[in-house]
Automatic annotation (TrEMBL):
The lineage of its organism: Bacteria, Pseudomonadati, Pseudomonadota, Alphaproteobacteria, Rhodospirillales. Pfam families: Nitrate_red_del. It comes from Nitrospirillum iridis. InterPro entries: DMSO/NO3_reduct_chaperone, NO3_reductase_chaperone_NarJ, TorD-like_sf. This is Nitrate reductase delta subunit. One of its GO terms (biological process) is nitrate assimilation. One of its GO terms (molecular function) is metallochaperone activity.
Amino acid sequence: MATTTPAFKALSALLTYPTPALIAVLPEIKSLVAAQGRTAEGLLRPLLNDLTGRDLYDLQEGYVDLFDRGRRTSLHLFEHVHGESRDRGQAMVDLAAHYETAGLSLAVNELPDYLPLFLEFLSTRPEDEARALLGETAAILATLEERLAKRSSLYAPIFTLLLALAGDGATAGEPAEDAEPADDLASLDADWEEAAVTFGPGTPGDGCSVDRLRTRLRAERRDARHGAV
C-alpha cells in the first residue's frame, strides 16, 4: 500500500450507509483501492461488486441490519468502550474538539466516534500520525473484523486492511472470545461495562498532542476485547 491517505478515504466511504452518492463514486473508489495493490483489490472486490450490482434498497437494509441494530458490530468506537455510560458523552466532546482543532468540521448529525468519520480525519493527518492513531484502535478493529467474518460479511476485509494499515503502530489486545449470543439482551448490556477512553483538545499539557490522544485511546485495547462474550 503506497500511501495511507487515499486508502483511508476509500475505506471510510465504503463503511458509510449506501446511498446513490456512494454508488456514483464507486469507480473512483475502485481506482483508489487498485492503487493500494493486488491484496487490497482482491480483498475488497466482493464488496465492491456487491455494491455495484445489487439493488440499493437491499444494500441499505443489509447495512442497517449489520451495523445499526446492536452494539456488537456498531461502527461507533466508543460503543465498544463506554457503552451508554456518562463517560461516553465527555469522550464525544473531547474527540469533537480534537477534530475541530485539526480543522475538521462536523455536521450537525455526525457523532465524533463514527468510524468512517475517524478515518476521514486520519486521511487529513501525516502518514506516521495517522497510522499511530489507527493503531491505538486495533483491539476494536480486530474484534469487529472477527465478528463480521463470523457472519460472512463482505465488510470484514475492510477491517483486515485497516489493521494492515496500522502496521507496527497497532497495539496488541487480548484474543476475543466471541460466542455471539443470539438475543440475550442482559449479556449484551453486560458487555459494555468498560473503562474510559477520551480524546482531548489543547496543548500537549492539556490533551491535544498526538501522544496524549494515543494515551487516551490505549484503554480500549483491553476493554474492547473483554467486551467480547
